[in-house]
Amino acid sequence: MNRKDQIIEAVVNKFREEGFSTDLTMTEVAKTCDIGKSTIYEYFKNKDDVIKSALMKMSENSLEKVFNIEHIETMNFEDAFKAQMVILFEIASESRMMFEVFSNDFKSQLPQAIQAELMCKMHEVKELLEQRFIMIMLKGVTEGIISMDQDLLSINVISGLVIGSMLRYSDVDQNLDLHLFVNKVYEAVVKLSN
Question: 163 pLDDT exceeds 60?
Answer without folding.
Answer: yes
